[in-house]
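Please go through the sequence line and C-alpha cell line underneath and see whether the fold suits the sequence. See right below:
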Amino acid sequence: MKNVVLFGYGKMGSSIAKGWMLKSLNYNFLVVEKEMSLRTIANNDGIKSYENFEQLLKFVDFKQLDIIFLAVKPQQMNEAIQVFSKINFSKTLFISIAAGLSFDWFQSKLKKNIKLIRAMPNLPASIGFGVTGYCKTSNVNKIDLHDGEDLLNAFGKAIYLESETLIDVVTAISGSGPAYVFYFVEVLCEIGMSEGLSKKDAKTLALETVIGSARLLEMSNIDPKVLKKNVSSPGGTTEAGLEILASNNDGLYNLLEKTVINAKNRASELNSNG
C-alpha cells in the first residue's frame, strides 16, 4: 500500500481528505500540519497526523513516501517545502494545489527533476462533487499519473490540461467558482427578503433553483443556451429579467468576464511573488 502525505489540513486539505475517505482508497494517508487544532481534526477524521516533517520521518522512512500532496497556501509554500531541498525525492510524486505556483517555481526551489502534478480542485471536493483541472511535468510516468488521477478523481471529476498556462484559468473559474455561486444565492436571498419573502423561504427558493437547474443541465445534456431559450417565453417574465442580465453593456457576461480575469491575474501575481 502506497503512502500519501498530505501537507496542510486547512479548508482545502481537509476537504480533499474527506473526499478520499468517502471513496475508501487503497492508500495509507498521513497528515503534516503545524496547527494542533487541525491535527486534532485530522486524527478525529481517522488520519494520523504529525506536527512537522521531521517528526513524521521518525516513524516513516522517506524512501517509503510515495506521494506528497501539498495543500498549504501559496504564501506558506516556500517555508513548507524547504525541508525537501536536501532530500533526494527522485522517486516521489509531488502534487500541488497551490494557486499560481508554477512548475518553474517548484523546480527553482527544489530540484529540476522533481515529478510534479499541479492541480486546482474546489471546495465541493469535501462532499465528493469537486472538479479539478490538472497538468504534469514531462517526467511523470504512467504509474505516477494513474496514482495522481486516483487521488484527484476520488473527490469529484478531474480534467487533464495539455498546457500549464490553463491552470490559472481553471483557478479563476472552478477554483474560485463556488464563492461566485454562494454569492449569487446570497444576493437572490437578500433581494427576495427585500421584496417581502421570509429569510427561510428566500433561501429555499434561491438555493433549490440553483441546485435543480444545475442537475437539469447535467442530466439532460442539453446546451445551456437551448435550456435558457426553453424557459424564456416571448414577452414573458423570464425574457424581461434576461433583458437586464444579458445586457451588452452591464450584463452578467461582462461582469463575470471581469471577475474571472481579475482572479486569473491574481493567480499569476502569486506566481510572480513566489
